[in-house]
Amino acid sequence: MTGCRVFGAAIYCIALFSQGQAIAQIEPEGLSWADIERPEFDPLGIRVGSFDIFASVTSRLDYDSNVFASASDQQVDDALMSIRPQIDLKSNWSVHKLDLAAFADSTFYTSLGTEDHTDYGLSVSSRIDVSRQTRVFAAFGYRRYFEDRAAIDTRRNTQNPIELQQLQASASLAHRFNKAELVVSADIAGFDARDGRLRETQAVVGQDFRDFTSVGGKAALSYEVSPGYAAFVSAQVRDGDFDLRPGDLGFGGGGVFDRNFSTRTIDAGFTAEVTQVIYATLALGRLTIDLDDPRLDDISAVSARADVLWNFSPISSFILKADRAASPTNDPIVPVRLDTSITVGIDHELLYNLTFKMRGRYARFDFDGISRTDEEVGGSVAVRYLISNRLQARATYRYAQRKSDAVGFNFGQHRMGISLEFSL
After folding, report:
1. Which run of H or E residues covers position 136?
2. Residue 254: left if φ>0, alpha if ψ -120 to 50, beta else—which one?
3. Which residues, in sequence order, are CB contacts of 291 under 8 Å at separation 6+?
4. Are 289 and 299 in contact (CB under 8 A)?
5. Backbone angles phi, psi at 10, to 5 degrees
6. Main-chain dihedrals φ then ψ at residue 6, nearest 5 degrees
7. Which long-range contacts (CB under 8 A, 24 or more apart) does 85-89 make?
8. Is residue 37 scored above 90 in pLDDT?
9. pLDDT tens readout for residues 62-111
């Protein structure tokens, strides 16, 4: 109840301090009314030669009703505080582009000190404008973070959250000729999970069997049928290569299956822009998952994705996102699962500098091979108040519930928080 009172007070204060006259609207282009640019409140940054430096510090106070994502009779709640400094370096060149970013995110719990952790990461992205028709993109990123206790595959009975590290790089080429555009891309990512310890016995929980390398490639060809409408076809392949094989020391879980896999996705669809009111991308195709171990059955399923934005009034937007994709798992037998998710939402501009977002989500996770299916439902509400170029406040509430065929994965969780972001 204390958390609810804090959340309610935050909403009230934001509304109270937001009274004022609206500022002239800027018509959104592919953005909801909550995400449009508001130049009067853009961070000022610091100009250093050909680059602009943007630095910010976000402090946040949250209440979590179920820290360990446990069943209802084992729930433990706590309050937590986090602080996140971030710096972005953006080029202001007339052609080409180079962006660099780095962050650190430290979280501290009031009672559960074993949950304290610090995430950090850095990224570099670039664009080379070869010509008006041809552009080359490249990106690199590194992230060290701790797995959310509510993650579908994580161990909930470890003393500390599982530490993860991810390294990834990508490159792509986009070339436009007349009304057609071809985009070809490739990426590689390395994933490393560190061992944990059981909360009760301190026994080591091996995680090396999760370490893998992912290599993928994609080609997409689109054609502008008429202004605002384009049809496309795309093909994507990906290989997942796990570091440990059956019989290797530390394979863990008593597993004896080769967990390497490859996926292929072929789909076709269209994009549409209807008078700056409706923006839509819809695609339908086939997803195939080939498993290296002959004792495991390959998977073939319909692939689908949708991304729809409808600005149905001058201050309100409707959002629909849907996707079906393959994801690596933490199961010692099943290397990959089929994920299906649907998200709907409403964005609303209460005032020019006060916006509201509401989301509802349904997801289904199919672990083919061990007869496990998980379903999740959830929702969230977020209010953002732009106070000035240097300061903004947020209040959020999120709910999630999971039902699983496997023992120990059912949970319900409420989380609410308030935050302040200060920018240079």
Report:
1. strand 134-146
2. left
3. 260, 261, 297, 298, 299, 335, 336
4. yes
5. -65, -45
6. -65, -45
7. 85/55, 85/56, 85/57, 86/55, 86/56, 86/57, 86/58, 87/53, 87/54, 87/55, 87/56, 88/53, 88/54, 88/55, 89/51, 89/52, 89/53, 89/54
8. no
9. 999 999 999 877 899 999 999 999 999 999 999 999 999 999 999 999 99
